[in-house]
Design a protein that fits this description.
This protein is α+β, with helices and mostly antiparallel strands. The chain contains five helices and two strands, in the order ααβααβα.
Length: 109
């Protein structure tokens, strides 16, 4: 509880944060969506401390995570069976990742 108290935003910033969240996370009351985070670090890890993956590999992992969540939904079967919108929040310090994402989307559309 103390961590929540310490990390809470100042009142003057709370409304701005809420608006940003509402703009970034689509919400449809008829068909709730699922949000997955995909942070990709590369500049200090790629080919040094770990293997560099292709963007399609990351998307395959996201698909497996989604499939696993369907299998282990713990009572959310109805939501998952309605084929909800899946939003992937991609973050990276590498500009090339976003170029790879654009190419991936063009090839899968």
């Amino acid at each position: 509880a103390i961590v929540m108290y310490i990390l809470r935003p100042l009142q003057e910033h709370a409304a701005k944060i809420q608006k940003l969240v509402q703009n970034d996370i689509p919400y449809d009351t008829k068909s709730p969506g699922i949000s997955l985070g995909l942070p990709i670090r590369g500049s200090d890890k790629c080919n040094r401390e770990s293997e560099c993956l292709t963007f399609p590999s990351y998307m395959n992992m996201m698909s497996k995570i989604y499939s696993t969540s369907k299998e282990n939904s713990g009572g959310a079967e109805e939501i998952l069976e309605n084929k909800p919108t899946v939003t992937i929040f991609l973050t990276s310090e590498l500009e090339t990742i976003f170029d790879d994402k654009d190419r991936y989307l063009r090839n899968t559309s």
